[in-house]
Design a protein that fits this description.
The chain has about 300 residues and is mostly helical. It is built from 14 helices and four strands. The longest helix is centred in the first third of the chain and has 21 residues, at about 80-100.
Length: about 300
Amino acid sequence: MIKQDTDLEFAYKYPFSEEAKRVVSALNANALNPVPMAMGRADLEECLSKGFLNYGDSYNKLEYLQSYVYSRLLVSALKNASFISKYAAAEAYRSYMALERDTKDNIVRVAGELGIDVDINGEYFSMGMFQFLKHAPPEGQLALVNLRLGSGIINIDKLQFAQLLRIAISKAIAVGLPIKYEDIPKQVVSYAKEIKLPQPQVSMQRPPGRASAWIEKLMFLPIDDGRHRVVNLILAPYLINVKGLEVDAAKAIIIDYIEKCKTVNPATKVNEEYISYQCRYAKEHGMRPMSLKRAMEELGGAIDFSMLMEK
C-alpha cells in the first residue's frame, strides 16, 4: 500500500526513484493498461521531438508512474541508442524542473537516491570536492572557477545543484535500458510501431515562421523574473535548433537579451557560463523551444504575453 500522499508526490516528481518503484509495485498491475500506455507513448514522442518533457501537476499521479514504466518499454522496443539517450535526458529535465520548485529536504533525498552525499548549509548545498568532481561536468556553469570553495568543500546554490542532479538523473534513468527485446510484451512492441518518430533535422537559416514570431518579439521584451527558464526552455533551443545558429552566435544574442533584462531588474543568476551550457545542451539533444501555449502556462507570471501577440 502507498503510505501517504507525500510518498506519491515524491514518486510522481522523480519516477526513477526507489519510492516510485515501490509505489508501482504496490499497484499489483499484471494486465496491460491502455491508458498509461498511451500516456507513455505521448510522453516518449514529446521527449524525442522536443528534447525535453515538462513537469506539471495535471496528470493523475498513479497513471503517470505507470506511464513511465511503459515509456521505458516503448523506447526499448524502438531499438535505437540515440533515442534512449534523448529520452533519458528529456525525462531528467522533467525532474530537474520539479527540483527547482521542491524543498531542500526533498532535494537532499533525491541526491541520496543518486549516491550523492550532500548537506544543507543555509542557502547552499555543501559537498566534498571528490564527490563534486565525480558528478559535475568539467566546464560551464558548474566549473570550479565559478563556485564557492573552501577547505575541500564545495558550496553551490539550489539552481546549480539541481543542474548537477539533472546530469546524475539522466544517467540513472538510462540504467537498465534498453530492456531486453524478448522481455517486452508483444502488445507493447506492436504499439511502439505507431510512435511518431522525429524527422531528421535540417538547417533552418531562414526568417522565423508564424508559430515562432512571439519568440522574436520576446527577445525585445525585458523581463524581471523567470529569465533562467526563458533561456533554457525558449531562447537557447529556438536559436540553435530553429534558426540554426552556432553556439557562439546564439550565446551572444542571449547575453544581449539578459543585459536588456537587467535594465528592469539587475539581479540575476543567469551568467555567460549558464548560457553557454544551455546552448550546448540544446544542440546536443536537439531540444525544441517551448510552445506559446505551454509558455503562457509556465511563465504567465513572469512575461506579459499580451505584448507578444500578433496584431
